[in-house]
Specification:
By secondary structure, the chain is α/β, with parallel strands linked by helices. The protein has three domains: 184 residues, P-loop containing nucleotide triphosphate hydrolases (Rossmann fold, 3-Layer(aba) Sandwich), CATH 3.40.50.300; 55 residues, no CATH class; 99 residues. Helix content is 55%, strand content 8%. The strands form two sheets. The chain has a five-stranded parallel β-sheet with strand order 2-3-4-1-5, with helices on both faces. The chain contains 24 helices and seven strands.
Length: 440
C-alpha cells in the first residue's frame, strides 16, 4: 500500500472552544463500549455536533482510540482500506501488517481474504480496539459497505466500531438492533436543551440574553447546534437582540449560506425539486407530495429524506406524516420564490388546497386557497371551518381568515357576514356591526 497518507485524517480532532459539555451523551457512548456492542452509530444532519461529541469522548477514554476522518476521496476501496489499516496501526502497530504484505503481493487475495487477515490481527491484539469512522456519509461504494459489514459480522470481542454520519449507512442496522449489538445517538439526542442553549449562548459565546430570548432561539432552531452558533455570531455587537430573535428565519445570511452549501447543493436535482415544491406545506405525507410534484414516489422520497437526516422530522410512529425543520423550510421557500414563476407558485398552492380539502383538512387548505388566489374557494373553506374556532372563542383566527378576503366578498355572503359580526361582537366592536338595512 504505497498511497501517501494525510496524517491529519488519523488525528482525533482537538477540543472546540465553543463546546458545551454533554455528560449524558458521553455516558451513553461509554455504555455502548462497556456492554460490548459491536457498533455505535451517531447519525444526525449537518451541524449537530457529531464530531465534537466523539472527539470529546475519545479524549475522555483511558485507552488509545483509532480515528479516521473520511472524505469523498476515500470512496475507493484501495484507498479506504489503506487508511483503515493506518488508523488501526496508530494505536497498535501489530494490526494489519500481514494484510499489507498480502495486498502488495502478486496475485493478491480477494478482498474478503484480506479483511479476514485484518480481523485475525485485531483478534490477536492484547488491548481493546476502538475505531471511529467520522463523516461516513462520504462513502458510497457498495464494496466498501460490504467490507464494513463483513467486519461487523465477524467483529472480534475486543473491537468496538463507532460511525458518525449525516445519514444512516447501508449496513445491517436492523439485525444489529435485533441482537442488541448497536447503540444509537440521533438528532433528538444531540439537540441542545434550553439549559444547554443558555450555557452556550451566554457563557461560551459571551452574549447577555434573557431567559425568554434564549428560549425563543432554542425553539426557533429546535436545538440545532450549528444554527445556534450562527445566530450567536450574528448577534454579537447588536443592540436590538429582541428584534433579531423575532426576525430570525432560515434566510438569515449565515444560516442561508450554511444550509445552502452543506445541505441543499449536495442533493440530486430530483430531490432538490421535491424539496422546493413541497416546502409550501406545513405537514407532508406521500400522496399530498405526489399531488404537488406530479410524481408517484412521494412516500419513498420522504422515507429517503428521513433516512438521510435531511432536516425532516416524523410526526407519527408510522412515519406517514412529516415536517421540515422550520429554518430549513424557510430556506427552501426562499429558493422556491426565487426560482419559480408566480404562475407555478399559484398552481402548487391550488394543488395543495385541492388535496387537503378532499381529505377533510379544510383549515389547512385555507392558506393555500388564499395563496393560490382562489378567493371563492377560500370563502367556502372559511364557512365550512368556522364552527371550530367559534366554539373555542378563537376570534383572532377568524379575523385573520376574513382579513384575507375583500370586504365586498364578505358582505356578499350571508354566512361570512354573520361570522364577521360575531367576531366584532366578541371583540366588543358592536358599533362596527352593520344592520341589515345598511346593505340596501
Amino acid at each position: 500500500m504505497s498511497t501517501p497518507l494525510l496524517a491529519t485524517k488519523l488525528y482525533v480532532p482537538p477540543p472546540r472552544p465553543e463546546m458545551v459539555s454533554m455528560p449524558h451523551l458521553l455516558r451513553r457512548l461509554d455504555e455502548g463500549l462497556r456492554l460490548g456492542h459491536r457498533l455505535t452509530l451517531v447519525s444526525a444532519p449537518a451541524g449537530f455536533g457529531k464530531t465534537t461529541l466523539l472527539s470529546a469522548w475519545a479524549r475522555s477514554l483511558q485507552q488509545p482510540v483509532s480515528w479516521l476522518s473520511l472524505d469523498e476521496a476515500d470512496d475507493e476501496l484501495h484507498r479506504f482500506l489503506t487508511y483503515l489499516v493506518a488508523a488501526l496501526q496508530e494505536t497498535d502497530d501489530h494490526i494489519g501488517p500481514a494484510m499489507q504484505e498480502l495486498w502488495e503481493a502478486p496475485g493478491r487475495l480477494p478482498v474478503d481474504g484480506l479483511v479476514i487477515g485484518l480481523i485475525n490481527s485485531i483478534a490477536a491484539a492484547p488491548a481493546p480496539v476502538v475505531l471511529i469512522l467520522d463523516d461516513y456519509q462520504a462513502i458510497g461504494q457498495p464494496e466498501i459497505h460490504q467490507v464494513v459489514t463483513f467486519l461487523l459480522d465477524h467483529c472480534p470481542p475486543q473491537m468496538h466500531l463507532v460511525i458518525a454520519s449525516r445519514e444512516d449507512p447501508p449496513l445491517p442496522l436492523s439485525q444489529l438492533r435485533a441482537r442488541g449489538q448497536i447503540a444509537e445517538i440521533r438528532e433528538r439526542d444531540l439537540r441542545f436543551t434550553t439549559q444547554e442553549s443558555i450555557v452556550f449562548l451566554n457563557q461560551v459565546m459571551d452574549l447577555e440574553l434573557t431567559a425568554d430570548e434564549v428560549s425563543a432561539l432554542e425553539t426557533r432552531t429546535e436545538g440545532w447546534v450549528a444554527g445556534l452558533q450562527l445566530v450567536a455570531l450574528s448577534m454579537r455587537d447588536r443592540a436590538d437582540t429582541q428584534g433579531f430573535v423575532r426576525s430570525l428565519t432560515g434566510t438569515h445570511r449565515h444560516i442561508l449560506d450554511y444550509l445552502t452549501d452543506e445541505v441543499l447543493e449536495r442533493q440530486p436535482e430530483q430531490v432538490r425539486t421535491f424539496l422546493l415544491y413541497t416546502s409550501i406545506l406545513d405537514r407532508l405525507t406521500g400522496s399530498l407530495c405526489n399531488a404537488l410534484t406530479g410524481e408517484e414516489n412521494g412516500q419513498d422520497t420522504l422515507e429517503l429524506l428521513d433516512s438521510t437526516n435531511l432536516f425532516i422530522i416524523p410526526l407519527d410512529d408510522e412515519r406517514r406524516w412529516y415536517r421540515y425543520h422550520p429554518l430549513f423550510r424557510d430556506l427552501l421557500r426562499h429558493y422556491l420564490k426565487q426560482e419559480a414563476s408566480n404562475q407555478a407558485l399559484v398552481l402548487l398552492h391550488r394543488r395543495a388546497c385541492t388535496w387537503l380539502a378532499q381529505h377533510d383538512l379544510k383549515a389547512e387548505a385555507l392558506p393555500h386557497a388564499i395563496a393560490g388566489q382562489d378567493l371563492d374557494c377560500a370563502a367556502d373553506l372559511i364557512e365550512a371551518s368556522a364552527a371550530g374556532p367559534m366554539l373555542r372563542g378563537k376570534v383572532e383566527i377568524l379575523n385573520a381568515w376574513l382579513d384575507e378576503l375583500p370586504s365586498d366578498l364578505v358582505r356578499a355572503r350571508p354566512l361570512l357576514s354573520v361570522i364577521r359580526a360575531w367576531t366584532y361582537h366578541m371583540d366588543g366592536q358592536r358599533d362596527a356591526i352593520e344592520p341589515p338595512s345598511s346593505r340596501i
